[in-house]
Amino acid sequence: xxxxxxxFVKVSFVNGALCVxxxxxxxxxxxxxxxxxxxxGVLLNGEHDENEFxxxxxxxxxxxxxxxxxxxxxxxxxxVHQLTCxxxxxxxxxxxxxxxxxxxxxxxxxxxxxxxxxxRAGRRITASNNTxxxxxxxxxxxxxxxxxxxxxxxxxxxxx
Length: 160
Fold this sequence. Notes:
The protein is built from three helices and ten strands; from the N terminus they run βββββββααβββα.
C-alpha cells in the first residue's frame, strides 16, 4: 500500500498489548526493487502484527519522518508541526534553533523541540515486548564521528 502519513500515527502499548492503527505492510514514498525481494528507494517502510511494529526509513534519510516518544507511546508524522498539535508540553531546543538560523537546516535528528526528533537515514522504530526503541546503522556515507560530538562542535561556533 502506498500513501502518506496524515496527520500522525500513534503506536502504543495498552495493558501490554500493542495498538497500531491501519493496514500492514505500509510503504510511503518511491520504491525501487533491489533484488531478492528487498526494497530500496526514497521511502518509509513499515509493517506490524499483534506483537511487533517496525518502521524504517531509507538509507538516504530523504523521506521526512519525525517522532515523539513518550513512555509506552510513539507518535510518528511526516512533519514536526503535525506532532505539535498533540497538545503535549514541548520544550524549545534553543541550540538546534540557533544552528538552524545560521545554516538554514537542522543537524542530525534535531528539531526545534527537544522531545521531537527526526528519524535519520537507515534507522528504524521498533515496538515489541512493551518497549519502543529507535535503532539502526549509520550509512556508509555518513561520517564516523559521534553525531552528538559534531552537533556540539558546530554549536561551539555560534556560542562562546
